[in-house]
Amino acid sequence: MIKTIVVGPRGKMGRLITQIAADSKELELIAGVGAKDRDYIGQDLGQTALLGRNLGVFVVDNLEEVIDECDVIIDFSTREMGLKVLQLAKKHRKALVCGTTGFSSEEMKLFREAGETIPMLYAANTSKLVNVMNKLLQLATAAIGEETDIEIVEMHDRWKKDAPSGTSKEIGELIAHELGAELSNLAIYGREGTGERGKGTIGYHSVRMGDTPSSHTVFFGGFGERLEISHHSTDWRGFAKGACDCALFLAKQPPGNYSVSDVLKI
């Protein structure tokens, strides 16, 4: 059994990860970790994650109290907590799956550097289908990326904190690298004013409204035709199941930087 800590167990992803891990025959939950002053600190993890049953393990507000008992940490919390979790994972040499988004480029560098000392898997999106979509995007970009106009449209609910989404940033980086460039040199975020579209750019459009589920579409616009590659989620279970699969994989690996593609072997 892989001994697992879930950070942010009351969040929408944390709740589902806790549920899937609790039902797993390969993962053993040993604790949840929440932010200080939350009213669920000290509660049973099952009650905190709204599972309707006790799991016999509890939620703490100090990861360092329980970190030595675990094999892997799954963190879908906040930018601030995510950086603290990273620091402690490195200090105690524990495998870390992080799906938190909103980090700056300099902060993302810290996650990449962590792979020198711990098994590290950062993924803005742990959905199996999203990562299959990424492979299709690589193929499309290699074949038609230089002769089409590329636009990325992503939709989320009104509570989404970062824009563009972490998933759409990963998509853009994948496309840019396939084109032999850096996303920072190609990305155009929204449009206004006059003038033709810049050749070779990647357009970004972020929609935020109501309780809209996560949705990402990449357009490859040619003349007389266009290709659309999309992923739409109806709930978050696929993402949570993917995160647990990542934890099972990562706990058995040596230090290094890993991706969901490594987990899926695609």
TrEMBL record:
Under InterPro entries, the record lists: DapB_C, DapB_N, DapB_N_CS, DHDPR_bac, NAD(P)-bd_dom_sf
Q: Which residues bind NADP(+)?
A: 38
The record places domain Dihydrodipicolinate reductase C-terminal at: 130-264
One Gene Ontology CC term in the entry? cytosol
Instruction: Give the annotated active site.
Output: 156 (proton donor/acceptor), 160 (proton donor)
Q: Where is the Dihydrodipicolinate reductase N-terminal domain?
A: 2-125
Has the keyword Cell wall biogenesis/degradation been applied to this entry? no
Which pathway does the database say it acts in?
A: Amino-acid biosynthesis; L-lysine biosynthesis via DAP pathway; (S)-tetrahydrodipicolinate from L-aspartate: step 4/4
Location in the cell reads: Cytoplasm
Q: What's the EC number here?
A: 1.17.1.8
* Known role: Catalyzes the conversion of 4-hydroxy-tetrahydrodipicolinate (HTPA) to tetrahydrodipicolinate.
- Member of which family? Belongs to the DapB family.
The name under which this protein is listed is 4-hydroxy-tetrahydrodipicolinate reductase
